[in-house]
Write a structure and sequence with these properties.
53% helix, globular
Length: 168
Amino acid sequence: MSKIVNEPKIKNPIIVAVREQLEHRALWMYLLCDEAAKKGLKAEDYAPDAIYRCGLYQGGELRKKAGGGDSLKGLRKTLFSKAAQWVFEMDIKNCDDDHLDIDFHYCPLVKAWQKQGCTDEEISRLCDHAMCGDRGIGASFGCELDLPKTIARGDDVCQIRYIRREKK
């Protein structure tokens, strides 16, 4: 029996439609990894690096939109908009130049993997790979990403913590 609880509270049709697009992205990721495994490739040998590269690219674009600086206030403004907060049912806990703490109470990616019948272990592994994109975004802002809790590991929340460990 799964220990992962991942049910949305916000049911607005527009938010549901956006979630379905994110689920589709997660479905692609799952199917690519599954097909590669059938051919003898291990996802951990390619997926984290590829997804990290995607995050670096996205982070660079977000920095441009935020005015070119590396303040996490810019990341919050560009990536974690009000619409994104509704989609992931987020609470912004703290945000300054060097810290961005967000709690996610729902994850459309996890929902997609649940719909595919993935085991809790598979969901946790897919989440670890997917979060490499967020790590790349953080690196673009000169920060690291900590994940004390994740829905994919059976926690009640995903705690996303961007932290600048050293000042420039």
